Amino acid sequence: MNKVLIIGAGSIGQKHIRALLSIGEKNIAAFRTGKGQLKNLAKDIKEHVKIYQDENAAFAWKPTHVIISNPTNLHLEYLIKTIQLGAKVFVEKPIVHDYTILKNATVSASEIKKYNGVVGFNLRFHGLFKKIKEIISTYQYGNILSANLIAGHYLPFWHPYENYRNSYASRKCLGGGVLRTLCHEIDLAYHLFGKVIKVFARIENLSSLEIDVDDSVDIIINSENCKRIYIHLNYLYPLPLRKGNILFEKGLLEYDYYMGTLFFTDYNDIKIKNIYSTDKSYDKQYIIQMKNFLADKSKAACTLKEGIEEMRIIALCEKSSKNGKEICLN
Predict the structure, then answer these.
(1) Do 14 and 143 share a structural domain?
(2) Nearest Cα to 91, choosing from 114, 107, 74, 108?
(3) For the residues of 177-217, what is the DSSP string, one character each?
(4) Whole-model pTM above 0.85?
């Protein structure tokens, strides 16, 4: 029988709990310090979850699976505890808040890379990106020439229940900043277009938001299957936005995550065709993600090894922005 322990049951932790309940998991516990902004579990899940406020007691429960969904700066501590316990691990993205801390970790980066665990990049399980992955892998529109990936959300509107100034996303000490918080697009670039070869980045704070982290990021990536990937992330769009396009030899593929649509414009007839639409169910990807994690069979999931490599990419983006130079990954 599965015994699933959630480390941190804030907004994302509660999404995972709902996903687990929806697939019939009944043996769920949560370790909570009570220091987060969302202090109370929602009524629809409270009666189904055993609550621990003592860390040692939570791990003494001997979970078979551990989901780490507390602030990013605490991820490594609990990842190591889970590895030492021997449970399967799911850690929210990004895997750590600072790539350099892996050098002095009590469990080496090479050991973590080999461990049976995944990183929570849920977009890999969304129907839209699964379809895009399929299109790319079958070469039905030819080779990729370039891609644009854009994501943004106005930070004060993100979590209505908390003051944005206190959010992990707005605080450097908790591993915040738009580069880390919205790093799904970096994962998508890695997942869809292959190994990253070069990066150039501009990381800035453009707004008057009361935060001590970046709120706007522009990245240019050269990967093994796409010579030019442009990524823009920000905390500034008044409405949530996640869309992009991929230019192929045969035409232009355009997606809109929130609309759940995929369009293609062919060079031959210059007609925009709706080639795919999803049901817009935001929660479905989390359910599929949890099913795959518990079954330990997903080929789509981001591995711990990939999660560490993507943190290296983030670190090199910061170095590029500081130095104003393109950086080669080797």
Answers:
(1) no
(2) 74
(3) SHHHHTTHHHHHHHHHH-SEEEEEEEEE--S--S-SS--EE
(4) yes
Q: What is the tens place of the pLDDT at every residue in 241-258?
A: 999 999 999 999 999 999
**Which pLDDT tens digit goes with each residue over 57-96?**
999 999 999 999 999 999 999 999 999 999 999 999 999 9
d(Cα 8, Cα 70) in Å, to the nearest integer? 4
Residues 145 and 269 in one domain: yes
Q: Which of 121, 147, 168 is at the close of a domain? A: 121
Q: Could you write out the DSSP letters of every residue in 259-293?
A: TTEEEEEETTT--EEEEEE----TTHHHHHHHHHH
Smallest CA-to-CA distance from 37 within 120, 154, 158 is with 158
Using left for φ > 0, alpha for ψ between -120 and 50, and beta otherwise, residue 101 falls in alpha
Closest CA to 137 of 125, 126, 129: 129
Q: What is the end-to-end Cα distance of the chain in Å, rounded?
A: 43
Count how many domains the chain has: 2
> Is 34 part of any domain?
yes
The single-letter DSSP state of residue 296 is T
